[in-house]
Write a structure and sequence with these properties.
Keywords: Membrane, Transmembrane, Transmembrane helix
Structural class: mainly alpha
Strand content: under 5%
Protein name: EamA family transporter
Organism: Oceanimonas doudoroffii
InterPro entries: EamA_dom, EmrE-like
Pfam family, one: EamA
Number of helices: 13
Number of strands: 0
Helix content: over 70%
Amino acid sequence: MDNHQKGLLLTALGVLIISPDALLLRLVNVPPEQLVLWRGLLNMLGFWLIVVARHRRHWPQAFRVCGLTGVGCALLFTLGTFGFVLGNHFTKAGNVLVILACSPLIAALLSRVFLHERLPLRTWVAIIACLLGIGLIVLDDAGSGSLTGSLLALLAALGLAGNLTLARSKPGVDMSPMLALSGLFTALLTFAWSGQIILPEGASLGWLVLLCLVLLPAGFTLIQRGPLYLPSAEVSLLMLLETVFGTLLVWLFLSERPSNLGLVGGAIVLLAMIIKAVLERRPLAVNPVRA
């Protein structure tokens, strides 16, 4: 298997693994602040176990090599976690997922400003189209009283995009171990906010353990490593799978159908992202990174 095939497999598998995220969040019956807290605690444990399994007795070095850049990535991923979980509490899961799908374009803007990367015209066109689609979703939410959810989803997209941009500033370094530190940050900040820990009961505890201890650590570890082998255009295209499958899962199992205006906005965002990714999908040399 060559590096390109490896990158495709890692990223696609990771995205498919995290696709039930929004659905399982709906099935966990706990207050939103407790959901964020337990997500942080279980993510911390799950990501740390993966780091130990990969690096064995050398696992502390996997954290040290990330340096302060890794700490920044962890903080930005924490911001994304808060935005995603709380956004799902205030608005439809499909709206959150569609807005989150714009994070690669936000990353392109951040890369232009902070890394001085030039953006082709098609990227600017895609950004404008996505802003139009997001505007329709936000307009729809404003009418239904869930504007807060859309704004939190935008915060999540900004956090994930910032993490991606910062990680790219230190090429050749695997930042996935810092996702464990992000889990710790998430738990500590939420505990400082709520001041209590409530243990979920029954099925909620089972769904929470499945999602936050197993699916998210496994999926995001694979996604974080995928771009080491793939051009960013292909990673962006594969990341759309979460938006599509995540929305379909919530619609199928919970009958949470997006509104017509939300569907139009989502279609505009997805079409813009797909066209951009397909236009950029060409053989590029990507330096492999050893595991």
